[in-house]
Amino acid sequence: MKKKSISLIIGLMSVALLGVVAMQYYFIRETYKQKSILFDEAINTSLAKVAAEIEKSELINNSQIITRANQAKYEAEQKKQRMLAEQLRIQRQIEKLRLQQLDVESVFREEDEKLKAIFPNITYIENWFYETYFRKRQNQRYIDISLVEERIPGTSLAQNFVVVSATHELPRVSAKDDSVRYVVSTIDVSGIVRDYRIATLPPKADAKVAFELMELRSQLELLNKEFLADKRNALAGAENAFDTLAILGGKKVGVVEDIALSILLSNRPLEQRVNQNQVQKLLQEELISRGIYSPFNIEIRDRSRIIYHSPDAETLASSEKSPRYTTALFKGDFGEPTGRLSIYFPNKKRVIADNMSYLILPTLALFAVLIGCFAYTLSIIFKQKKISEMKTDFINNMTHEFKTPVATIMIASESLRDPEIASNEQRVNKLANIIYDENVRLGSHIERVLNIAKLEKENLRIERTDVHVNPLLEGVLDSMQLQLHKASGTIHADLSATKDLVIGDELHLSNVFFNLVDNAIKYSPNAPEILVRSHNSKENIIISISDKGMGMTKEQQEKIFDQFYRIPTGNLHNVKGFGLGLSYVHDIIKRLDGKIQVKSEKDKGTTFEITLPLKSKKSNNS
After folding, report:
1. Which terminus of the chain, N or C, has less C-beta within 10 A?
2. What is the pLDDT of residue 448?
């Protein structure tokens, strides 16, 4: 494969991988934003519900106080029994109706906060405006919805408001109900209102209950006036239930009337109206019901100071950087709300990330698989490229190796055609020997190539017969004497293995030993010094062939059993071969259930160590 093709493939795969990573990152980021919005909505809803529960609890407690006070007055003043009983009945009815009204208001506030949390661009409209302009399709053309920018006094900032108005005044149509309606607008990036729809919420209050409350308060006021007229303000101390509450609140007797009850209650200090433990417990229950188990810190403050905060000072110090959620307390009081309840989540990001673990972990696993496949593909490409280059070198080398004996045979054959040479029997015999030797050499080369091809195709037949290793080694060493003599080398044999019977193929084992001894001779720059040993270790025979030749580096040792790999010899050009010998040796030993190891040091020599199982061990295993 050409270098340009490899670069193109790597480039395309890199772009594809980066594209997948970018898409997954975008998807996870958008999912995180959605989770964060849902988290904020759950917190705000929980705060609103807790605030409503606190206010409802206070109403119940105040009702109990009033009931006890009036009961005390009933026991103390028998003459006022009938009037006080009526007062208590009306007061209880009022408190009951107020609780009903508070439930209605709580439902409205929860729906209202949910709507505002989801849709930031909403505008309140009167019901008569809805009936006049929105109800009839032909009147909708007079509706004008626009975005108005209003600067915040004292700052350089501005706020945007959506204003709903009519371009043409029509006769008003009376409201059909007391529902609360908003116009939900869709605004594009240029600030233009593109679309709108009507959102209808339940009423802020129950009109029937409100009317009954007004009637009951009127009745109570009449009773109080009658009571005060009878007493002519002559008695000291608490004269009715409201005076009793005035004393409890630190006020003067006779100041409080029924209409001023809410004002009196709202003027009490906030720490007397809020139970911190109750707030903590309610928040904990609400958050758990919405699947939020993260620790949090709370803060309660009135209009000027902090009433209560979480005791965890270290976490509270980090709350300045934590997301803060706030709601008003006692929204039913006259005027502005008395207090505010705030909650902090130092671990908000971790909570959302934990909720997304089902998405993040598989994504990371997918990335790991993709990157692994990418790296594996690259390694295969480079490995195949290297093998291709080695095969090219092998073909060139094989051509050169085959060319030499062919050329020698051709020259000898042509010489035999010369009548003068043909008449000389001695010269004919010499040329015939040359032709024979070169044919043998050529056949040897072909046989080695064919053996490697058979090994690759798993077609090489391995005989499994009894083979004595020591005699086989001696025979190989004897056959190598002539080659060793030409190289002026020496071989020392120490065949001390007392057990040398293995199950193997005599031909291939002799080829293995021949290759190793031949390499020891070829890769010795000086006169070869070779040591061949055999010894027993447990139920194995170990054969080692050592030389004092050029040696190998660690990098070369890792590659010598690869096909076509040849150790560079620098300026030494007399080392011939195809790079197939050690690959053949490794495969044969492996097929015979043995193993081969190499130990080498550059410029100091090499030792090949072959371990083969003895016949007895093999038989026992079978």
Report:
1. C
2. 59
